[in-house]
Automatic annotation (TrEMBL), chain A:
SUPFAM superfamilies: SMAD/FHA domain. Residues 48-63 have a biased composition (Low complexity). Coiled coil: none annotated. It comes from Streptomyces cacaoi. It comes from the Bacteria. Gene3D superfamilies: 2.60.200.20. Residues 41-77 are annotated as: Disordered. Residues 97-147 form the FHA domain. Keywords: Phosphoprotein. This is FHA domain-containing protein. InterPro entries: Cell_Proc_Reg/RNA_Proc (IPR050923), FHA_dom (IPR000253), SMAD_FHA_dom_sf (IPR008984).
From TrEMBL, chain B:
Residues 1-19 have a biased composition (Low complexity). One of its GO terms (cellular component) is plasma membrane. One of its GO terms (molecular function) is lipid-linked peptidoglycan transporter activity. It is found in: Membrane. This is Cell division protein FtsW. The keyword Cell inner membrane does not apply. Residues 1-21, 453-474 are annotated as: Disordered. The chain crosses the membrane at residues 27-44, 56-73, 85-103, 128-145, 154-174, 194-209, 230-248, 254-270, 275-293, 352-373, 394-418, 424-446. It comes from the Bacteria. It comes from Streptomyces cacaoi. InterPro entries: FtsW/RodA.
């Protein structure tokens, strides 16, 4: 076999081997590049950095998870103040909180007047917490007004769902 | 904000709503993965004898048949499984077959075998047979194991079986200075290969129950979470066991794999960096202590530090030859069948098989092979992220961690990065136990990934949906 053929085969084999590697990585590219969530948190972190950094560091030497949902005035926990779950608190860590009687809700309400999927509370882009009614039977009330659209939650305002009242606190 | 990543406490779950099954992608990759070894096979024949090797069709068909059966079984019994694992394993197994066949053709190795054992028997047919048995095991796992959570019931049984398998080689004569073999008539098994799966099952089941105690009950000290004294128990027991393996079986590889796997899984289960620090300190201390009185370990360390020294060469020139093989391969390699990696002599086609890759495919080919291994580990970790149950998460991390550790330990040993250990390159190296155990490992990973990516059953209509009482304005 001539030297030239062998050289071509040698380089050809390496090319084919790498082609396989590249095709494999193409197959899983969504795993490697496609996480939208990472971008979002990164952007939020950037927005906060100039003004709030020293503050946050002093408050939370552990860093990281807490306080993702906004700056200094942002609420850090959700407290149930009335109803059968009175006293329950849930830490707000940037995740969506669903409320309802369905078993997969974040807060499972044992309340005859609540729907299975009643409402949800989530942070928007800037870390402002929003409450949204999910088409419940009896409606969700922020203070005294029945919600029709997703509405930002002012600090300390009671959210009423059936017999249950919850508040966001620092 | 419907993100596809929900974070709840320490569990990260990647949702899998409406993922395509991707079986056709797998089929295309499998065809590719079978053609590459056939190409390599033809290349070896042309380079060594100037003609296409006569057994080419046989090996090609054999590999294609294995891949085809594997694919059909996955299509039938694990339709949502990860599309990459099977092609990656097939390609590595195929390339391994080619390298073993190529080393069978080496006149040097044939003469050596005739001198030492009186006769030369080629290893490639055996390897093909073991690959077939390995694939049968893979098929059996997918068919029988409908749900990986069943393994959780065998947490302590698998620990017991694993320990027995670890201890068993002590009662058999040492081969080549390491007691890692069990000889039953014509069969020579390395139980250590299977132990990694059993131990991963045990650690996953154990840590799933105990992780909260290990993660939460701790004090902070100098930026590290120090566990309570009594929680240190398990890690110390595992450490002592791995040291005993090292002392009584003189097997650095299994010992390292055993302890490393535990530290990895402990870290994943508890998210505490302190365990890694502890693990590294303990293993460094233990290894140093054992090296002071165990001559076999000392020899290995000497061979690693001074591969070209006169005393090392007098004992065995394997590491030196292996380093020369990598060196003479250069960037692009010498081409299939044109290297001299057969100079390694003993274990050229098992422990030292990576040296042949290094010489004949060069740095470029070695990196591609290592990326293939890396992709298998990446898929394992990914499966772990996607798994819905903590046991599946831990098991997937454990299995891929063991796989990755083994690749590191072998590749590092052959390249002279760490002392050489008696382990084999998964899928590439000649050896029945290794091929069998690794196909079983891939089978379990595919089972977990199928469970993880399977669309969740539609939520049953909630019985209390209608019972919501309407508030009537009075």
């Amino acid at each position: 076999m001539s030297e030239l053929t062998l050289t071509v085969m040698r380089l050809g084999f390496l090319a084919v081997l790498w082609l396989f590697v590249i095709v494999s990585i193409q197959v899983i590219r969504s795993d490697l590049f496609g996480t939208r969530v990472t971008q979002r948190t990164a952007r939020r972190a950037q927005d906060q950095r100039p003004q709030q950094r020293p503050q946050q560091q002093r408050q939370q030497p552990a860093g990281g998870r807490r306080g993702r949902g906004g700056g200094r005035g942002a609420p850090t926990k959700l407290v149930v103040t009335e109803g059968s779950l009175t006293g329950t608190t849930v830490a707000l860590q940037g995740q969506t909180i669903t409320l309802g009687r369905a078993h997969d809700s974040t807060i499972v309400l044992d309340d005859d007047y609540a729907s299975s999927r009643h409402a949800r509370i989530y942070p928007d882009r800037d870390g402002q917490w929003i409450v949204e009614d999910l088409g419940s039977t009896n409606g969700t009330y922020l203070d005294r007004t029945r919600l029709t659209t997703p509405t930002p939650i002012p600090p300390g305002a009671p959210i009423r769902i059936g017999k249950t009242v919850i508040e966001l606190r620092k | 904000m419907s993100s596809n990543l929900t974070t709840t406490g320490s569990n990260t779950t990647v949702s899998s709503g409406g993922l395509p099954s991707r079986r056709n992608t797998e089929l295309a990759l499998l065809v590719f993965a079978v053609l590459i070894p056939v190409f390599a096979y033809a290349n070896v024949g042309l380079a060594m004898d100037d003609r296409l090797p006569s057994g080419m069709l046989g090996y090609g068909f054999g590999l294609a048949l294995l891949a085809g059966v594997g694919h059909l079984v996955v299509r039938r019994w694990a339709p949502y499984a990860d599309p990459l694992l099977l092609p990656l394993a097939t390609l590595l197994n195929g390339i391994g077959l080619v390298i073993i066949w190529r080393l069978d053709q080496s006149e040097r190795l044939q003469t050596r075998a005739k001198l030492l054992f009186g006769a030369f028997s080629p290893d490639a047919p055996n390897q093909l047979m073991y690959s077939a048995i390995g694939l049968a095991l893979f098929v059996a796992i997918l068919v029988v194991l409908k749900d990986h959570r069943v393994l959780q019931r065998y947490t302590y049984i698998s620990m017991a079986v694993g320990l027995v398998l670890l201890v068993l080689p002590v009662f058999f004569p040492a081969r080549n200075g390491a007691k890692i073999w069990v000889s039953l008539g014509p069969l020579n098994l390395q139980p250590g290969e299977f132990v990694k799966i059993l131990i991963a099952v045990f650690f996953a089941g154990y840590l799933m129950v105990k992780r909260d105690a290990l993660a939460l009950a701790s004090r902070r000290f100098m930026g590290l979470y120090l566990p309570r004294g009594r929680d240190l128990g398990p890690i110390l027991v595992v450490w002592a066991l791995s040291l005993m393996i090292l002392v009584f079986e003189t097997d650095l590889g299994t010992s390292l794999l055993f302890f490393g796997l535990f530290v990895i899984m402990l870290y994943v289960a508890t998210e505490r960096t302190s365990w890694i620090v502890f693990g590294l300190l303990l293993s460094a201390g233990g290894a140093a202590a054992v090296a002071t009185f165990e001559p076999h370990v000392q020899d290995r360390v000497q061979a690693w530090l001074h591969p070209f020294a006169k005393e090392t060469m007098a004992q065995s020139d394997q590491i030196a030859q292996s380093l020369w093989a990598f060196g003479s391969g250069g960037v692009l390699g010498s081409g299939w069948g044109q290297g001299n990696s057969d100079l390694i002599g003993f274990a050229a086609n098992s422990d030292f098989i990576l040296a042949t890759v290094g010489e004949e495919l060069g740095l470029t080919g070695t990196m591609a092979i290592l990326i293939l291994y890396g992709l298998i580990v990446e898929r394992g970790v990914r499966i772990s992220l996607a798994a819905r149950d903590p046991f599946g998460k831990l098991l997937a991390v454990g299995l891929s961690g063991a796989f990755g550790l083994q690749v590191f330990v072998v590749a590092g040993g052959v390249m002279g990065l760490i002392p050489l250990t008696g382990m084999t390159m998964p899928f590439l190296a000649s050896g029945g136990s290794s091929v069998l155990a690794n196909w079983a490992l891939i089978g379990i990973l595919i089972r977990i990934s199928d469970t993880a990516r399977r669309p969740a059953p539609a939520p049953a209509p909630s019985p209390d949906a209608e019972m919501t009482q309407v508030v009537r304005p009075s």
